[in-house]
């Protein structure tokens, strides 16, 4: 099974392998929406108003709400351009989140009863919205390669939907709507999603929940998929004798953490039973907070160390807010006040200094005086240059203009310019 050709020239014709990753986090997806709007606007300043984020990344990975954003950025419209501009995502969330997660008194009463014997929301509204927008679009139709993690509760193992896998495993070429519904099915909030795919008279069954239980930050999964393609000698990728992290350009966008030191203590937690671990008096859900933040931070911790150790720190940009107020943290809090606060948080995040993980204490700390906005501008310039270089270096044949007929010249050597201390 052949997937639709990506609109992005493959990295074998360029200097870099480009990766965009978006965390999970429910309504907090508004934070990466603001960051992505800024990035796309910078790309449009460089390459024109038709520029879209999907034009610049070899892989876009997203978990849960990040998976929805990934689909919005990469699903094609009737003209084979992205279904959404990045600037449209914020308004989409502001309009749809209150419908998906209603907060009137009736819904509050319903949730009080449902929490005892089922998920807080039936998911019908979310499912209808996703299906109405994505229709029959399949994984193989996306405009660039995507990676969306889920978890199969019947097999008790992660299921990673990857554009690169569907030629080898055609049964993974599921509807993008089914994949998005599955990766958003957060336990206790939304019901698991069951669907089947068929290939050569065989039926393949999926029983999936939110990919955040396996990889709330999917950046490392994306890097792993790339490593597999390199190992398999995929001709779209440059031949590398060993991992060259200078060949990667990675932007990883978080949905915000609520790290209030001292909020959870061993003395307090020793009094919790099953209910206490699932629901705290302050409205938090300790167990959910712990497993999502642990997986998110471990990925950032690892990649920060790797890129620093290879002296290419500037090739990895993690944009994350780790001091959200507790009241802003619930993934289903879709009140107007909270949604507006999340938009403000995303806007302020652009003005904050770029931070990296302190490898001693695991905390985010500023590195230099460059703001996230300035770092994104620098990345936009590098992405634009990379796109132009690939265009010039790839084979082109034009009957109208024979001068653009170029030989295939894969770029195998890492340029010195990318070794940034």
**How do the SSEs run, as a string of H and E?**
EHEHHHHEEHEEHHEHHHEHEEH
Helix content: 25-40%
How would you characterize the largest beta sheet?
Answer: 8 strands, mixed
Number of strands: 10
Q: Ranges with pLDDT <50 over ≥5 residues? A: 397-421
Cα distance spanning the termini: 43 Å
Strand content: 5-15%
Keywords: Hydrolase, Lipid degradation, Lipid metabolism, Plant defense
Pfam families: Patatin (PF01734)
Domain PNPLA: 20-223
Family: Belongs to the patatin family.
Protein architecture, described:
The chain is α/β, with parallel strands linked by helices. It contains 13 helices and ten strands. The strands form two sheets. Strands 1, 2, 3, 4, 5, 6, 7 and 8 form an eight-stranded mixed β-sheet that branches. The chain has a two-stranded antiparallel sheet with strand order 9-10. A hairpin with a 6-residue loop joins strand 9 (353-357) and strand 10. It is globular, with a radius of gyration of 21 Å. It starts with 16 loop residues before the first strand and ends in a 28-residue tail after the last helix. Mean pLDDT is 85; it is low at 397-421.
């Amino acid at each position: 099974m052949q997937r639709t050709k990506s609109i992005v020239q493959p990295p074998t014709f360029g200097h870099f392998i480009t990766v965009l990753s978006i965390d999970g986090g429910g309504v907090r997806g508004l934070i990466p929406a603001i960051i992505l709007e800024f990035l796309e606007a910078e790309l449009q300043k460089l390459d024109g108003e038709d520029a879209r984020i999907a034009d610049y990344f070899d892989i876009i990975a997203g978990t849960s709400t990040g998976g929805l954003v990934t689909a919005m950025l990469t699903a094609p419209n009737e003209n084979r351009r992205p279904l959404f501009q990045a600037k449209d995502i914020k308004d989409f969330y502001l309009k749809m989140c209150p419908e998906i997660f209603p907060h009137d008194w009736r819904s509050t009463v319903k949730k009080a009863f449902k929490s005892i014997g089922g998920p807080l929301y039936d998911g019908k509204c979310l499912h209808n919205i996703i299906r109405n927008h994505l229709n029959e679009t399949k994984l193989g139709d996306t405009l660039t390669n995507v990676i969306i993690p889920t978890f199969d509760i019947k097999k008790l193992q992660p299921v990673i939907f990857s554009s690169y896998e569907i030629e080898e495993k055609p049964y993974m070429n599921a509807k993008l709507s089914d994949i998005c519904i599955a990766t958003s099915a957060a336990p206790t909030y939304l019901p698991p999603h069951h669907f089947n795919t068929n290939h050569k008279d065989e039926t393949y069954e999926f029983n999936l929940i939110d990919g955040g239980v396996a990889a709330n930050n999917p950046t490392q999964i994306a890097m792993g998929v790339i490593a597999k393609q390199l190992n398999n000698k995929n001709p779209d990728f440059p031949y590398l004798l060993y991992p060259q992290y200078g060949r990667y350009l990675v932007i990883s966008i978080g949905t915000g953490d609520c790290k209030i030191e001292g909020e959870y203590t061993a003395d307090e937690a020793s009094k919790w039973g099953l209910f206490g671990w699932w629901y705290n008096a302050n409205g938090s859900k300790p167990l959910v907070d712990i497993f999502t933040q642990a997986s998110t931070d471990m990925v950032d911790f690892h990649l920060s160390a790797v890129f620093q150790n290879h002296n290419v720190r500037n090739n990895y940009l993690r944009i994350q807010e780790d001091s959200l107020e507790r009241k802003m943290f619930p993934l289903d809090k879709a009140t107007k006040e909270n949604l507006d606060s999340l938009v403000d948080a995303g806007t302020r995040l652009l003005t904050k200094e770029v931070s990296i993980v302190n490898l001693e204490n695991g905390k985010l700390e500023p590195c230099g005086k460059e703001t996230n906005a300035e770092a994104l501008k620098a990345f936009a310039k590098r992405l634009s240059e990379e796109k132009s270089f690939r265009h010039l270096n790839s084979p082109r044949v034009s009957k109208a203009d024979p001068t653009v007929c170029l030989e295939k010249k894969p770029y195998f050597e890492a340029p010195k310019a990318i070794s940034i201390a």
